[in-house]
């Protein structure tokens, strides 16, 4: 008996990864190319087609029922287009149509990378068993996604749950998105580092000014580094509590590079959450680190296809008699 598979694409500014994923979330085949992010849109698409070519030439391809795509955003699932900030050659690029053509007309599901990570954590990771969850990627930016009523809630364009651009400081710094005081402006890795440097933190002899270096300094007790992580934690807590109050999530999962800071982030985050999540129905909200690691994008793209493309899920779970 051969179980059907889902093809997955994880598209970012540095790499384009592809995989064939089975119904248990296991990756059976991988392919990858660097993203030619500075090239024109068709050159970027050729890299995608090379990844898909490795998948379609495999003997496993005949079992693929759908393609899931998790892409850096903005994405527009309703139009089937992507406009990743870090891939300037793609603006309103018709990725869904191009991928469908390259895969023989399979159903294609497109979501933002934060939604893909959420799908992965709900299927196989820290949000497994939770019917209502917010999952976040806290890295160069801050993205996220929602699970509501046990189902992935991607929204009409595939961007629902984009917590990074909730405003938590009405008079805060201007954000590149056009708003003020966004969670991302305080809690992303580059902004944690920026705030520490502005506060007088000095890097070590290696000159490393990353958020990871600030986290190391915070662990060693540097007060400015600690204060920058406290501020980031406060912003995250305010955004998480607002989301929980709005849609009644019971867990928030945090992944991405900043999430790897450990207690330097999670201790002040849990403390701040007690100050913001005060209503009776959000007090039991828990916060947990993500578990899926670097495969979250691929596993999540597959999970999104299963969750949002009913025919793929039906075929994946149906008995395979006669195959």
Automatic annotation (TrEMBL):
Segments traversing the membrane: none
N-terminal signal peptide: none
Top-rank taxon, per record: Bacteria
Family of the protein in this entry: Belongs to the ROK (NagC/XylR) family.
The species this protein was found in: Streptomyces venezuelae
Stated name of the protein: ROK family protein
Organism taxonomic ancestry: Bacteria, Bacillati, Actinomycetota, Actinomycetes, Kitasatosporales
């Amino acid at each position: 008996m051969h179980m059907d598979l889902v093809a997955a694409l994880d598209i970012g500014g540095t790499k384009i990864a592809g995989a064939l994923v089975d119904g248990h979330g296991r990756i059976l085949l991988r392919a990858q190319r660097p993203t030619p992010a500075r090239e024109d849109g068709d050159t970027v698409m050729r890299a995608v087609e090379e990844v898909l070519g490795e998948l379609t030439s495999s003997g496993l391809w005949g079992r693929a029922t759908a393609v899931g795509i998790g892409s850096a955003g903005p994405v527009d699932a309703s139009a089937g287009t992507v406009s990743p900030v870090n891939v300037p050659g793609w603006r309103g690029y018709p990725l869904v149509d191009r991928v469908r053509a390259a895969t023989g007309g399979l159903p294609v599901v497109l979501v933002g990378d934060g939604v893909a990570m959420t799908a992965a954590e709900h299927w196989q990771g820290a949000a497994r068993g939770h019917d209502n969850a917010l999952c976040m990627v806290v890295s160069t930016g801050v993205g996220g996604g929602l699970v509501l009523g046990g189902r992935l809630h991607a929204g009409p364009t595939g961007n629902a749950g984009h917590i990074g651009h909730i405003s938590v400081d009405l008079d805060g710094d201007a954000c590149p998105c056009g708003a003020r005081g966004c969670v991302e402006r305080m809690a992303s890795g580059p902004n944690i580092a920026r705030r520490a440097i502005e506060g007088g933190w000095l890097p070590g002899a290696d000159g490393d000014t990353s958020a990871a270096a600030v986290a190391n300094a915070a662990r060693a007790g540097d007060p400015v580094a600690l204060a920058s992580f406290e501020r980031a934690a406060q912003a995250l807590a305010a955004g998480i509590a607002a989301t929980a109050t709005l849609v009644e999530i019971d867990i928030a999962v945090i992944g991405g590079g900043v999430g790897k800071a450990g207690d330097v982030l999670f201790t002040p985050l849990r403390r701040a959450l007690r100050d913001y999540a005060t209503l009776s129905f959000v007090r039991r909200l828990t916060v947990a680190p993500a578990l899926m690691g670097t495969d979250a994008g691929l596993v999540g793209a597959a999970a999104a296809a299963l969750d949002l493309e009913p025919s793929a899920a039906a075929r994946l779970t149906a008995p395979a008699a006669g195959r």
